[in-house]
Request: fold
Amino acid sequence: MTPATTDSQQRHSKTGPDRSGRYRLWRVFMGPIIWTLCFVALYGAHGLACLWLAPTDTGTVGVKTALLIIWLASLLLVGFLAWRSLLRVRGQSSPRHNPSPTSGNAPSGSHPDERASSTRGAFLPRLTIMLDVSSWIAVLGTGLPVIFLRICAGPLFSS
Reply:
């Protein structure tokens, strides 16, 4: 092996699914991380805008536009991740890619540890799709107030 191949393999093994199709742990949590960053960016920027601008300033339109762009970009990114995860789960659901010990596709002399590892190998992609879809719903709910409420509107109900 040449040093360039080793560097390339090391870089590739640290990101996403590797060549053998195994999932890396960071990919499982990418959807919730994007939702968290979206949440902090939306509400942090909104709070700073309220601190620096009066509710009647014309700058609030620019702030609302920036918040909508952040929200839509997060929504699209998490949606893309969920779509890719769904494609991955669908690709592994065929017996050819994911032999189960009871389907007759597993070798008859296979060791129980090998069968258990194939079952564990199917868990991370399914967990990833569930977290990605949950994160997409969370990003959607987090950004809805950006659409429907004014910047620095104050309390909705006064006592």
About this structure: The first helix runs from residue 3 to 13.
